[in-house]
Amino acid sequence: MQQSTTSFNTISGDFECFQNFTSSEVFAHQLAGLTNPGDINQIIKSQKQMLQRFEKTNEMLLNVNALSQNRLKNVTEDYKKHSKLLIDMKKDLEYVFKKIRNIKTKLENKYSEAFAEQAKRQNTQNLDELDEEKEENITYEQLESIKNVEDNVDSALDALDS
Fold first, then answer.
1. Is the Cβ–Cβ distance between 91 and 99 less than 8 Å?
2. 5: three-class secondary structure by DSSP
3. What pLDDT is recorded for position 17?
4. Average pLDDT, whole number, for the chain?
5. pLDDT tens digits for 33-52?
6. 3-state secondary structure 82-128
7. Cα 109 from chain centroid (whole Å)
8. Cβ(42)–Cβ(34) under 8 Å?
9. Is the dihedral of CA 31, 34, 37, 42 positive or negative?
């Protein structure tokens, strides 16, 4: 490192070259002399490139936000329409079921014997369906035994073929 042309006179306390500057300014000038201007220019160039990238990214994010707001607006309108439609459908169905219940009670009061007989038939039919479901449900052990039987049959058939 080269010695700078400025010299300090420590005995008298004054500077030859920096006599009109404050101590912080002198420190900043000497610190600036320690850095390489090429490195500083490279740092500035890198910072400008980063700034350009950030600005582009910021623009893209702004575009995404604008598109998202438009989409949200459209979807919100559709959601409100569909919600209203579902609420109306629910009210209509409740009205229909209420009418059906009223008709059913009137018929039950008028034809109570037929309703009692139909209720018995319905109960036995429900029990039969439950029994069929129980028969259809196969346990893991039953499935394994069926598989073993099939394997035994396959091996017996292979033995007969050879």
1. no
2. coil
3. 61
4. 80
5. 777 888 889 999 999 999 99
6. HHHHHHHHHHHHHHHHHHHHHHHHHHHHHCHHHHHHHHHHHHHHHHH
7. 55
8. no
9. negative
* SS3 category, 153: helix
- Give the type of residue at 109: N
On whether the CB atoms of residues 10 and 16 are closer than 8 A, the answer is no
30's CB contacts (< 8 A; 6+ apart) are 4
pTM: 0.42
pLDDT band at 100 (very low <50, low <70, confident <90, very high): very high
Residue 4 has pLDDT above 50, yes or no: no
Question: In this structure, what token pair is assigned to residue 123?
Answer: 């109960």
**Six-digit token pair at 139?**
């346990």
CA 96 – CA 88 distance, rounded (Å): 12
Residue 114's contacts (CB-CB under 8 Å, 6 or more residues apart) are none
| Secondary structure letter of residue 58 according to DSSP | H
Which token pair is 23?
A: 């101590």
